[in-house]
Write the structure tokens for this entry.
Amino acid sequence: MDVHENENGSLETDAMNGYAAAAAEELGSDTHCSITVLRRGTLAHVGSSDDRAAHCDQVEVRSGEGPCVTAMEQLGGILVPDLHPETRWPAWRSAALVAGFRSSAALPAYVDEGTTVALNLYSDDLDPWDRERLVGMDQVIWRLAEAVRTRLGA
């Protein structure tokens, strides 16, 4: 799967949708995935496995805060095993709960000096991912980062 940049400089969503769908499939039917990119200070939702995950990330991009934003800023994974008691990122949390999600995780990767990508996981289930599953996703996000890096010529 190739990652493209269109004439506006944004990554094409078809390729990113494919990456998100493949990640969701790898994790199982209870997981929904989306991809967000932070490039030169600009956040963009670039792909998702379904509309529910896309909506949550679009809220995150509009508000400028959420687990994937924090994950990309810190270059460290964020796990939200239960959305109900979560107090950070109120706009994103509300959107995720309204969408029916109970848990979330954000796994970032460095692409180049000006670009970071995050794979965002959502589940209707409470705390569904064990350490082994999340480590497996780390490999997926690094492959995604490499595809973005290659396409952008970094």
Remarks:
- Confidence is low (pLDDT under 50) at residues 1-9.
- Residues 38 and 116 are 5 Å apart (CA to CA).
- The two ends are 18 Å apart (CA to CA).
